[in-house]
């Protein structure tokens, strides 16, 4: 009967329920014009663009699993005696936060699985953000008009690290308590106000009873709320600016080559979300992580052997572990530069990453919009800086786990510490130099391929007896990809005197800008790409 009624309505020209609902919503929200403008928006297709989606989907999974865990977790520092399902801890004094974590793990249906999915999703989320930002950095996707989006992504990375710190501190087990003690020591190293900050945060002498109740709303409300707003703003700007794309035929700053958002991209994105969720569920079900029952409840006079933070905080741990234990006594006060200096360097290094797009824009003076990505080899200094930062991170990660490295590789912990202290200064420089030379070598290879073609492996004997290898000319799309990049001359101050011999005033900032431009984009950072005349000269006639 319903089908017959629909047919009759159609025959009479009447709108169905779905169409009437759509008309009602469009009349009040203007959805039709919005959908028409954006649902057919074209997105380029490349595997590296999925890195941002991994971040988005793991963040959504974090929210879903976090809501479930919030229903059963009690953020209380009140001490209780445990009588529960985990027999080895029966009769042990612990906080209610730790007891509720044990209840989630052993008594709540699916609680341990959700806990582990939540923890793995946090690690994947931060990993995805770091790798995604490195992709953006190495390809120059942060250039105008996307500087603000880079700042949003950088803020999400920083907040993700802080959210992870507050999250694994909530169970109040011995491992997380050791991490909080580490953070308290760093806060206490702040001159003059460090003690006040510590007392304000912990509600008195460490460990106090207020830290867990204070971290809980920060972890479940404040930081996720800010991050959710930043994610929405980030996605809106991606839509507004259109997606970047790798160089290739038909791709320029005005057009995008790819698939429409609806239905192709939406179908792929939906499938990729469930794939991400499935992998995280598999990891949560098969790979144990953060077994709090094995560590026991936190006690201020105990420290876990081999205590390590999650990998994304190994950077700060390594900075403090390899720093000499300096102390300075001034006017009856003890200063701890051995802790305060690395504690300050951690945000400063992250700040340098956040402001880099603005520094490069100032050095180049480029005001144009860029929607075509750079090949990393064509920006050797930028690529070298990125690899140097990654090498510094790896070195400090080794320093943050020097005890684990020493016990597993049967090495002296002092030797590892001194190796890290030296490598902090040497490894980034070596990484930068090697990366820059590799990029220049790849540029030379690209130039040779454009002029002489691809090696075929076919050997031909010439009439006078010489043997040569036959080279096959590249296709036009390959030639375009290898030669489309720009090689603008770097910024220069110009003549220091005018036509009348009068010396021009030159500001110190101009000298600094010219010096940075020469180092980052000067003749030593590029191999001149072939000109049209060179290509025609080489390819005309029989040059094999």
UniProtKB/TrEMBL annotation:
Q: Which UniProt keywords apply?
A: Cell membrane, Electron transport, Heme, Iron, Membrane, Metal-binding, Respiratory chain, Translocase, Transmembrane, Transmembrane helix, Transport
Q: Which InterPro entries match?
A: Cyt_b/b6_N, Cytb/b6-like_sf, Di-haem_cyt_TM
Provide the protein's localization: Cell membrane
Q: Which GO terms describe its cellular component?
A: plasma membrane
**Any GO BP:** respiratory electron transport chain
Q: Which SUPFAM superfamilies match?
A: Transmembrane di-heme cytochromes
Q: Which cofactor does it need?
A: heme
What protein does this entry describe? Cytochrome bc1 complex cytochrome b subunit
Q: Name one GO molecular function term.
A: quinol-cytochrome-c reductase activity
Looking up Pfam families in the UniProt record yields: Cytochrom_B_N_2
Q: How does it sit in the membrane?
A: Multi-pass membrane protein
Q: For this protein, what is the EC number?
A: 7.1.1.8
Enzyme category, top tier: translocase
Q: Which reaction does it catalyse?
A: a quinol + 2 Fe(III)-[cytochrome c](out) = a quinone + 2 Fe(II)-[cytochrome c](out) + 2 H(+)(out)
Residue ranges annotated for the Cytochrome b/b6 N-terminal region profile domain, each copy included: 21-247
């Amino acid at each position: 009967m319903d089908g017959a009624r629909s047919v009759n309505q159609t025959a009479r020209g009447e709108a169905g329920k779905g169409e009437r609902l759509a008309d009602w919503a469009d009349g009040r929200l203007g959805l039709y014009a919005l959908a028409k403008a954006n649902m057919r928006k074209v997105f380029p297709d490349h595997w590296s663009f999925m890195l941002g989606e991994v971040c988005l989907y793991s963040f959504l999974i974090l929210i879903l699993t976090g809501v479930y865990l919030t229903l059963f977790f009690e953020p209380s520092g009140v001490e209780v005696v445990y009588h529960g399902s985990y027999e080895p801890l029966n009769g042990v004094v612990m906080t209610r936060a730790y007891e509720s974590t044990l209840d989630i793990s052993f008594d709540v249906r699916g609680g341990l699985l959700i806990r582990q999915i939540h923890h793995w999703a946090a690690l994947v989320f931060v990993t995805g953000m770091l790798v995604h930002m490195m992709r953006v950095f190495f390809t120059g996707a942060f250039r105008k008009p996307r500087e603000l989006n880079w700042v949003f992504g950088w803020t999400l990375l920083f907040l993700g690290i802080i959210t992870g710190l507050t999250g694994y501190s909530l169970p109040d087990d011995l491992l997380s308590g050791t991490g909080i003690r580490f953070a308290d020591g760093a806060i206490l190293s702040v001159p003059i106000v460090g003690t006040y900050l510590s007392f304000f945060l912990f509600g008195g002498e460490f460990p106090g009873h207020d830290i867990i109740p204070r971290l809980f709303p920060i972890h479940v409300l404040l930081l996720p709320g800010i991050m959710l707003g930043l994610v929405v703003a980030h996605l809106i700007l991606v839509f507004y600016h259109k997606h970047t794309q790798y160089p290739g035929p038909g791709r320029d700053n005005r057009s995008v080559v790819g698939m429409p958002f609806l239905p192709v991209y939406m179908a792929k994105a939906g499938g990729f979300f469930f794939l991400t969720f499935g992998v995280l569920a598999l990891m949560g079900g098969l790979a144990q992580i953060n077994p709090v029952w094995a560590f026991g409840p936190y006690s201020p006079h105990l420290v876990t052997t081999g205590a390590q933070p999650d990998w994304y905080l190994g950077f700060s741990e390594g900075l403090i572990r390899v720093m000499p234990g300096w102390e300075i006594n001034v006017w009856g006060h003890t200063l701890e530069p051995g802790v305060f200096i690395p504690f300050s360097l951690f945000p400063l290094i992250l700040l340098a990453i956040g402001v880099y797009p603005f520094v490069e824009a100032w050095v180049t003076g480029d005001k144009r919009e860029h929607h075509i990505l750079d090949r990393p080899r064509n920006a050797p200094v930028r690529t070298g800086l990125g690899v140097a930062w990654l090498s510094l991170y790896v070195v400090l990660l080794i320093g943050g786990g020097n005890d684990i490295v020493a016990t597993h590789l049967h090495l002296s912990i002092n030797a590892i510490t001194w190796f890290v202290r030296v490598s902090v200064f040497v490894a980034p420089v070596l990484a930068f130099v090697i990366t820059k030379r590799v990029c220049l070598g790849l540029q030379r290879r690209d130039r040779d391929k454009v002029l002489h073609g691809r090696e075929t492996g076919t050997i031909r004997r010439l009439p006078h007896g010489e043997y040569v290898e036959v080279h096959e000319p590249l296709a036009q799309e390959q030639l375009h990809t290898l030669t489309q990049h720009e090689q603008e001359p770097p910024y220069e101050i110009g003549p220091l005197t005018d036509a009348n011999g009068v010396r021009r005033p030159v500001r110190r900032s101009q000298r600094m800008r010219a010096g940075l431009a020469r180092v980052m984009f000067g003749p030593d950072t590029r191999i001149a790409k072939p000109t049209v005349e060179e290509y025609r000269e080489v390819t005309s006639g029989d040059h094999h």
